Amino acid sequence: MKITTKLAVEYLKKNKRRSAVTLITIIIVSILITAVFSLVSSFRQYMVNIERNNKNWEAEFIDIRYSDALEIAKYDNVKETSLYYDYGYSKEDACKYDRVEKRFDENQVSYFPEPFYMRAYDDNALKNANFKIESGRLPENSNEIILTTFQPIYYDEDNNRILFFNVGDEIELTFGEEKKTYKVVGIVSDLEEGSRTFGETRLGVVTYLDKDTISDSTIVNVRILTNNVKEIKKTTEMIEEDLKLSELPNREKVIQKENSFVESFKQMIEAEMGKEINNKEEIDSNAKVVYNIDLLSYELVTDINSTFATALFCIGGGFTLIIVFVSITVIYTSFKMTYNDRIRTLGVLSSIRNE
Length: 355
Prior knowledge:
This protein is of the alpha+beta class and about 350 residues long. Helix content is about 45%, strand content about 20%. It is built from nine helices and twelve strands. A hairpin with a 5-residue loop joins β6 and β7.
């Protein structure tokens, strides 16, 4: 064995060029494979960060009791809970409201029914929604609201767009039988797109959820973050089973759609067309869990959605196979040349011995 090793070392020294080619090839292959997996991992983490900056929640429980929401926070794998409450559609229409106030020239206002749709967020929900604030601040009590820049359009004499409502304005809104004056404290570029959007209106409104004003039986929506995201499906299924959430019906909207301006406008169109317009929104009769599919895909939670993980592994595996194939080809060629030289040398020695 020592003789074989000595001969191998001597031969490597003698064929320095081929030995160097083999060594460099192995080093380059190792670097390339490491680079491929680093790029794939970095891209995945980049997408995770983007998604968490847009909507930082992993699963959402729709229409559950506040008392159940408190129980959800006690589960071992639940890191954080965020609560929000849907007020629904207001009875006021933004354009009509402003025409009553007569702040703008009616001839310069593009009119289309724009009801307000309001949600109340608790501290964690406001933090994880990552609102992009253009002016002002987030609401700090239930008398304050923030609005999106997607408001009814008004242009000044220089054709510059002016918002209907700005920071400091007060708006009187009616939800159900309760009429209340809210102060606009912030304008955001856009409201988050959660599992359910802000109704059929661009004019979303967000206020602060004061937990002291709600009871254990109040129906809320709960979003969760987990300690181990890979176990999220197991955790949500356990919560559903323990708290019997599937037996809870979805709550009635505080503002029924037939009382909203959206529904009134739809009925007007139906009357003119002479036929009914199908409503695309379908509300499940039972409480349910909604997952943040994009985020969980980037987190490689394959039991929720394996499409992204499969694509990522295929890309990384494909590049790795190409690198390995090229490296094997180069190394094989190097050894083949060495093999041929040895055959030639042995052939010469055999000829000399026969002579």
